[in-house]
Every structure is written in C-alpha cells, then in structure tokens.
Amino acid sequence: MTNPTKTELRGRLTPEQYKVTQKAGTERAFSGEYWNTETPGIYRCVVCELDLFASDDKYDSGTGWPSFTTEIAEGRVSLHSDRKFLIKRNEVRCASCDAHLGHVFGDSPSDAGGQRYSMNSAALILAEHDSDQESTQ
User: Fold this and answer.
1) Partners of 92 in the beta sheet?
2) Are strands 77-82 and 67-68 parallel, antiparallel or unpaired?
3) CA–CA separation, 74 vs 63, rounded Å?
4) Of 28, 65, 69, 117, which residue is most buried, by most CB within 10 angstroms?
5) What percent of the chain has pLDDT over 70?
6) Element of type H or E holding 15
C-alpha cells in the first residue's frame, strides 16, 4: 500500500484522527470511542487498516484510554523514544504507515506480560467479529 499524502489524509480523517496520527496528539482521557468498549474484534490502524490489537488482549487499565497487553502479532507496531513533557516514554507507531498510536508503559499486570499499550481511540478502527474469528491480515 502506498502511504497517502497529508492532503489525502486531511480529506479522509476527522480533525481529531489527523491530529493524533499525524501530529502525535493525545485525545483526552475517557473521551475516545473505544476506551470502555467490550465489543469483540480486531483494532486496526485508522490510516492504513493494518491489524494491530485483538479485543482479547484489551483490558480496563483505569486510565481512560484503550489499553492492550500486547500487539496482535510481532512487528505490527514500532517503538520510538519520546521525551515530551521532560519524561522518557516509548511512543507506539504503526509499523506499516508510521501513524502515531499512543504509548507503551511497563505497568500492566505481570501475568499479562507487564506491558500496557495505551492507545488513542482516534488512531484505531474496530473491525467487529464473533469472538472465535481470526485475524486475516
């Protein structure tokens, strides 16, 4: 897939989706569409539709953002050092189109891998399915 131009993205994405994915913005906690949904499915990148996270790996972290314990398959996201706000964080980007998705923190329950992928709802689209359906991407 060829990555769309900024002009194409502005025409296709909402202003919030554009701000989050292209300007590394962060939506307000408890404001995004998916922070508390329990609908089964696959969470995809809003820009390129790459499968990123499974609803089976989503949990309520109490933060107000959709949180996942792991990516759906290795290599779906890339991590980058982020030193905004004078603290070191690990930014999460889509490995396919480089869209900003959120951040990863090491405070998830240890029995779930210890990682909390804290994503912005505006960076995701949910492809709903029955709980026994598998990812195809």
Assistant:
1) 79, 102
2) unpaired
3) 25
4) 117
5) 89
6) helix 15-23
* Structure confidence by residue, pLDDT tens digits, 37-62: 999 999 999 999 999 999 999 999 99
Phi first, then psi: give them for residue 94, nearest 5 degrees: -65, 130
Residue 132 to residue 40: CA distance in whole angstroms: 9
Domains, the chain, in order of start with CATH, read 6-70+78-128 (2.170.150.20)
CB-CB contact of 124 with 43 (8 Å): yes
Contact present, 10 and 18 (Cβ < 8 Å): yes
Single pTM value for the model: 0.88
